[in-house]
What we know:
Layout: H1 3-34, H2 37-44, H3 59-70, E1 77-80, E2 87-92, E3 108-113, E4 119-120, H4 128-135, H5 145-168, H6 172-176, H7 185-199, H8 201-228, H9 233-239, H10 260-270, E5 274-282, E6 290-297, E7 306-312, E8 317-323
Antiparallel strand pairs: 1-2, 1-5, 2-3, 3-4, 5-6, 6-7, 7-8
Amino acid sequence: MKNRTYNIIFHTHTVSGIVISVVLYIIFFAGSFSFFRDEIVNWERNQSVEITDDIQLDFDETLDSLHKKYNLNGRDIELKKYYIEQRVAVSMSASKDTLNSEKLEGAKFFYIDTKNKTEHTYNNSYTLGEFLYRLHFLAQIYYPIGYYLAGFVAIFFLFAIITRVIIHWKKMIANFYVFRPLAKLKTMWTDAHTALGLIGLPFQFVYAVTGAFFMIKLLLVAPSVFVLYDGDSAQLYEDLEYTHPQYQFNNKTISSDFSVNSYVETTKKLWNDFNVIEIHVFNYKDENMHVLVNGHIDYTSKFNGVGEAIFNVKTGEIVSKKIQ
């Protein structure tokens, strides 16, 4: 390699490392604590919870209670467990009953405690664990600027890793075994930088690539949307199965009784060790009401076993089921 090329790569490696060092430190520092997000949250709330992804909740009782308070007729309701904690998220759409929708409250989002059934907003559920978790990808900065900033920091981090390999390629292995703690301070830091950099190289490469992808994937996916989907991002999300199916609201009250708990039990019988993490009710108490039960097989049995079943409440039959 020519000296000019080497010097350019060396200095860009140095500058990129200096520019991102502070933000990268914050990301790594918060990321280390993010592994213990749930433990920190439960400690702050002084709660002891069972370590399981399965929602520990009587769904029939909960929906009846919510119906008395918010009138769920014609709404889509989702109960989902995101973390190992005592609260599950409740999302309610506005009612599809156009005649009565003006009299009802609009869409809502809150958390419900699975033990004492108390309701909590996102703001009063905010904890130190949540703060550190969101700080890991700079979510506190105005959305989506923080996400993009974290993504571009990851890209510069990847650039620093690649230039580091180019710079040290010839002497990478030889320098790895050189450590002179009794030499002057600059020499000791240089040796430590080389050795620790080589040890952490594969891990840092994974951090950089995955961080860049997750934080700025919108920019990476956008060209595909325009080329393959003619700008229809909704179709892309549907193909990726990020969205739920839609069911027509018939505006006719269902005459038969139903039990969401029974649908959950039926789903659990389909696959052994199945954890239910989400219940989605379409068109509550409408003639075209459907219930989606989503979850995964316990990780001790199968690492990647996501499954879901959709029930037609009027007939009680399974209209769709799949496992991955």
